[in-house]
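Hi Y.,

Following your request, here is the sequence exactly as I used it, all 135 residues.
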Amino acid sequence: MFRRSKRWSGATGALTGRTRRGVRLHGPDDAVATQDTVTQLIAAIRRARREVPAAAEVIAEHGRAHDYDDPGKPSIAWDGQQARDQLVIALVSDANRLLAHLPEKTLGPKAAEALALLALVAGQDVEPSRWPAIG
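Below is the corresponding structure, written out as tokens. Let me know if you'd prefer a different format.
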């Protein structure tokens, strides 16, 4: 995910000049942290859907984690670690599929920034040894 994030941001220049990094090397451990991660992932996927040509079609075909038209949070057992982990895995997998299935083409600044942000958000809470099913 870090390589994909670097590729999108480098190719587009969307994050040029920004030096702060918000990378966590572990997944969220409690309901509040997970809800924040879920909110960020869903928002980044929705932004990509709005800004990137063909993203809506890719999400409609490959998005499985959430109904991205639903304004609410997913209905899961927020007090259950396994349910939270599965949701984050599913959302990150949706983000990966979106990035992988988009056609290669030159993007405008808003679309490029949306994809760079999606790659960054999807990679910030992922530790492959903890969540090996992401992909």
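Residues 2-9+30-124 form one domain.

Thanks again,
Q.
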